[in-house]
From TrEMBL:
This is NADH:ubiquinone reductase (non-electrogenic). The chain crosses the membrane at residues 385-405. Residues 18-342 form the FAD/NAD(P)-binding domain. Residues 367-422 form the External alternative NADH-ubiquinone oxidoreductase-like C-terminal domain. Residues 450-472 are annotated as: Disordered. It is a single-pass membrane protein. Gene3D superfamilies: 3.50.50.100. The keyword Lyase does not apply. Its cofactor is FAD. It comes from Petropleomorpha daqingensis. Its EC number is 1.6.5.9. The keyword Oxidoreductase applies.
Amino acid sequence: MTTSPVQAGSASPTGRPRVVIVGTGFGGLFAAQALKKAPVDVTVIGKTSHHLFQPLLYQVATGILSEGEIAPATREILKRHENTRVVLGEVTDIDLTNRTVTSTVLGRTSVHPYDELIVAAGAGQSYFGNDQFAEFAPGMKSIDDALELRGRIFGAFELAELATDQSEIDRLMTFVVVGAGPTGVEMAGQIAELAHRTLKHDFRNIDPTTARIILLDAAPLVLPSFGERLGGKARRQLNEMGVEVQLGAMVTNLDENGIEVKDSDGTSRRINAATKIWAAGVQASPLGKQLAEQSGAAVDRAGRVSVLPDLTLPGHPEVHVVGDMINLDKLPGVAQVAIQGGRYSADAIKRRIAGKPAAAPFKYFDKGSMATISRFSAVADIGKFRFGGFIAWVLWLVVHLMYIVGFKSRVTTVFHWAISFLGRGRSQRVATQQQVYGRLALEHLGPEFEQSKTGGLADDAPAEDLTGRRSA
Ligand SMILES: Cc1cc2nc3c(=O)[nH]c(=O)nc-3n(C[C@H](O)[C@H](O)[C@H](O)COP(=O)(O)OP(=O)(O)OC[C@H]3O[C@@H](n4cnc5c(N)ncnc54)[C@H](O)[C@@H]3O)c2cc1C
């Protein structure tokens, strides 16, 4: 492992205040964009080299969109920001006393001093203490997850085509989505459309339209955040599409072949299913706990940090935390909270540098929420209006298109949507063994494998100081 010998508090080469941003999701990216013309040196650190548009991950998983369309390179997005450099690395340590952030990638460690810090590391999947479920039921948080699921979903139909035993065919053609929030509903709806429309004529031994798609949740409602009326509408529509909605059903165990469920009346049962998808629960980045421990801020069960009304940490006005990592006024874990928080924090930094008084506390402007159920149908909750159907779906298309980053991606997305929603096709049906087995293989290989991929760097190899260098 190599370590950059950057001294805490060392001055920026330009003499300007150093702003470090952790995360290239909605909070991090929009904060960086808001600092474009500010007299600061910005370092954006992300553990992936792309900005991920998570709301459309399910479309990558079901073959509608390619990963590139929802995950443009951060470096490309920020290439015209002359005050900004982009660094690939996972932040492992934040030292609030010495004002440094430590990141590492493939055994190369760098230390980044800051004057102002914005932490926007988001949230990961939560299996509610059953992390072993992840092996059999991938979540939906990253491009890796979406591609693995794509491989598992399309692969299940391929294996069913080969199987001769009916119970095996049934197992392969049963898809269980756990979690009836927006992600679960969208995923279940798209698997149903895939089975019933896209793949209808593609097989000879199986009939994909007989695939069983089950959406289950321990809660008594579909889309609880949209209220009973819209949730009920979504449930009826899912039923019409052939999705079995099972509510009050708590997952108690999972294995390669199926899922065990306890119903609200206390009875237990098993569903044989090859493909399980976990769309229930989130856990904030572990960096939240680090920040809380050092600042005395509280952290809730989901790992979110209680921030002050200006999104900073107690006793640390220079540390801003935004997006899915924060616990403030019951704000939801949605993109707009992160975007607005990122912009607010960037503005607070600019004000401080300009010697202006601090802005009013952060106020979230709720622009509403939407979820698609199938092509031509969505539900929307915007201000006083809660409605569903075609208009909601068109609105959903327009809003999502607006927030996809980059002209190229928007054009190709529209093209692929036309193929899938007006026609029956799916342009992205490639599924490789690497996609399906890569995650598990890496887990089995263990951390030593990562060390072996450092290109031969030894523990005492010359240190590389990244902090004085500029790149976009
Ligand atoms: C499947 C899915 C569907 C969704 N659909 C919707 C929707 O329809 N509408 C909506 O408003 N919201 C939706 N959301 C929620 C929305 O995507 C999040 O609220 C939003 O992304 C939060 O932004 P963020 O910046 O806090 O975190 P993220 O966007 O998750 O970004 C976190 C960033 O931090 C990086 N990171 C994490 N840990 C580290 C580390 N240690 N070091 C370096 N980098 C790190 C990550 O790689 C990532 O770049 C959805 C989420 C998911 C998963």
